[in-house]
Each structure stands twice: as structure tokens, then as C-alpha cells.
């Protein structure tokens, strides 16, 4: 299945999981610290990839000017912290697990049977 909006929606849904009453990622410095923003954006992007893969969705991405700046910010984080990719992937997986848990039981059973 291909979908243009799935990538953006799953990216934003991953951000949505951040508050303490969901999965508890600290976003207090998101608007103040470029490194923290880059980390959260990497988490959201990985979460989007994981969700789309789990749901069998191939997002149709069109390159946009801001993509280069996102990539640049992620590369700075990854070069500065060898564990950053693993931490981001772990946070993304927790977000995805939380989102999957919001599905009604019959949807979960149907997905697991497929």
C-alpha cells in the first residue's frame, strides 16, 4: 500500500507519544536546544519508518528543502554521540509499541494473524 500522508502522520504520532502520561520523553528543551530538537526529530522519523513498515505502508516521499537541514542536524548528533542512533531507535520503538497498544483488540489480533 502506498500513501503520501502516512509518513507525516506517523511522524507526528510519534511526537504525540512524548508526554509523561504516554511514554515519557522529555521535550522541555525541544525549542531551546538544536541538539535536543534533532534527537527528537530523529526519534519521530525512525518511529514513522517503524510504523509504516509494521502497517505495510510504503510512504511516497517528495524531497523538500528542509530535508537537507534535518539530515545535517541528525548527522551532527550521530557524530557527537556513538550511542545516539541506538537510543533514538529504542525511544522510537517504545513510541510505536505504545501506538500499537491503542488499537482495539480485534485489530491487534487480525494484524498478528496476517
Descriptive overview:
This protein has 114 residues and is mainly alpha-helical. The protein has one domain (2-113). The protein is built from five helices and two strands; from the N terminus they run βααβααα. It has helices at residues 6-16, 34-55, 65-80, 84-101, 105-113; strands spanning 2-3, 58-59. The radius of gyration is 15 Å and the shape is globular. The two termini are 15 Å apart.
Protein traits:
MPTase-PolyVal; 114 residues; mainly alpha; 5 helices; Antirestriction protein
Tell me the layout of helices and strands:
Layout: E1 2-3, H1 6-16, H2 34-55, E2 58-59, H3 65-80, H4 84-101, H5 105-113
Parallel strand pairs: 1-2
Helix pairs in contact: 1-2, 2-3, 2-4
InterPro entries: MPTase-PolyVal (IPR041459)
Protein name: Antirestriction protein
Domain Polyvalent protein metallopeptidase: 7-91
Total strand segments: 2
**Portion in helices:** 55-70%
- Give the ordered list of helices and strands: EHHEHHH
The profile of the biggest β sheet is: 2 strands, parallel
Number of domains: 1
Q: How much strand content do the residues show?
A: under 5%
Q: Enumerate the strands of the largest sheet in spatial order, edge to edge or round the barrel.
A: 1-2
Global outline: globular
| Ends apart, CA distance between termini | 15 Å
- Poorly predicted segments: none
Q: How confident overall, as mean pLDDT? A: 89
Query: From the helix content, strand content and strand pairing, which structural class follows?
Result: mainly alpha
Tally of individual helices: 5
Radius of gyration: 15 Å
